[in-house]
Amino acid sequence: MDKTPKKIKKYVRQALADMPVRTAVANAAETSVASRDKIAGGIPYWELVRRKVRSIKKDVLEHLDEYLIEFESNCQANGIKVHWARDGASAREIVGKIARDCGASMVVKSKSLTTEEVGLNAYLAENGIEPVETDLGECIVQLLGQIPSHLVAPALHLSRQDIGRVFQDKLGVEYTEDPAELTEIARVHLRQKFLSARMGISGANFGIAREGCICVVENECNARLTVSLPKVHVAVMGVEKLIPDMAALPYFLKLLPASATGQKSSSYVNIIGGPGREGAGEGPQEVHVVLLDNGRSRILGDGQLRETLMCIRCGACLNSCPVYRQIGGHAYGWVYMGPIGSALIPQYLGEKEGRYAPSLSSLCGACREICPLEINIPRHLLKLRNKVVRAKQSGFFERIAMKLWAFAAARPLVYRFVTWFPGKFQMLLPGKRAFPAPGYMGRRAIGRFDSKGFAKRFRRMERKND
Amino acid sequence: MKVAIFIPCLTEHMYPETGLSMVKVLRHAGIEIEYVHGQTCCGQPAFNAGYRDEIIPIAERFIRLFRGKDYVIAPSGSCTAMVRVFYRELDIDAALRDDLDDLCGRIFEFCEFMVDVAKVDSLGGRFPHKATYHDSCHLSRELGVVAQPRKLISSIADIDFVEMKDSDACCGFGGMFSAKFGQLSTEMVARKCENIVESGAEYVIGADAGCLMNIGGYLRKNHLSPQTMHIADLLAKSLDL
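^ inputs. structure came back:
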């Protein structure tokens, strides 16, 4: 992946110049929020479910070590092979080795942000194994050589016309923009891949500790084919995805589709409890789960920021975010985008690489309001901005300006002098010009400094009243 | 009833009239006011930019300055939220913790104070114009103040109050955000202003100087007719104060 959050400022400029993408993103996001509101509003016990899910997730994160051990041993009892990956590199190697061992030259993949996070596709391709994305949106962005622009809807930034052209160029079919025909083209293209792949790679929405299962929810049946047709199935899962037991699952299955796509339930809920065996139905011969840390245990160590690990990747915060609605997901420069992405980027990639991400927010709080887990994203962004400052990654001039300003604001006399200056300076400007504010001005005017200020005017008013 | 007023930076230096309006309206409601001298800023700009250690002295000073006041009232949801919600995030002197807790229960945003504490639902003013209201993010989401300003506005005689689409959508100001990502912030306020214009209102009422400067600046520069007005100014004007 050649994009980096270091270049967020450039990406934002580029995104703002791309009107078709902006329109597509804004429309899709607004529609999603509207249908989410309709479903959430129609569930009378919505807030109760929200609270329940939050308390479950909180408990899991507080006792993650115990749940992981429980999950591992119960998976093993079910015949699932469990692998531990400390970081992206080890996750890639583990998956690569399993692929080589089963002789796969091509693998089918169902949508998985976690594999995007570790750059699995590029690694497989470098090692002569062709990864084929089978989620429709993901398949489209893969054909374009892009990364997803949304957590749930990877091709949300594209119009049907765009998709028609991609299929025409890359799959050699006749141009069409009819959604049904486009879907049919993808179906024909992918079905062959499903039948010939030796290995399928999926993510996991939930790892169920007590029963030793994983759960994958989806709408296109591509995940079901991915996890059941090839003879080997590998699921890559972040360690934070655990839930205690099957009894907890329905609460999540209520919140997730409603928040993600405004659906009462997902079309397919796949629960994978091990390889196919005599008397327990069909299935792959081998099932592997790769448990990925990649910085999660470090995040877990921060009592406040730990809350960001509660995220179930529903994407509702993106849809509700006025910033995301303007710039889409690619401007964030990484696989996690939108408000939760802004909070995850510096935590996963470090304060240097991710220094701009927490600032890419007006802190309006729409994300926190819609988040099914009620993650207080603005509060975390504020803390992460502080971490950027502490790591000395904020701009030099900003640092100087803030320190001087803070020095003044703690001393009324200095403060009065410093704030007296712009009002006077402004009087020297021709006409009714305002004090210049580069970056702010352009298509909007800035307020003028008052020549006297409130304190003076108040004293004057009081004298008059006496 | 006696209240100490806190005048935030933008009100102090750019919109002092709003501060005066607040004083007049409070007095009109029979509330005695006190201006505490030596007040500066709550520290929000630096806090939002990530400079926490730097603003600890500012916060400690604020807490000491307003110690022992029955009520502290500010014409801004954002600055009120800074004190009530975000001062707790700072490593302030342990000896001041109790004072902070105490202050958090006594600092109110102007509309919130009028309706919830002073129990003033109607002041009896008149303003024969069409107006809409913009929900400032910190006021509505951090402080949960949504109904109070609407109550105050609707109580004014002859006012034609209309809700705009997405009244709670951010205007794109966000303090330093508006300068760091100036173009993006402008696109956000453009969206806001579309909804304001669409509502057909002559006035867009708000309760935070930052949002109003942002919205007003865009409306003015783009020659759009609605005018911005702080709710304190609206109330003062409706009462001919």
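Chain A has a mean pLDDT of 94. The radius of gyration of chain A is 26 Å.
thumbs up if we can close this ticket
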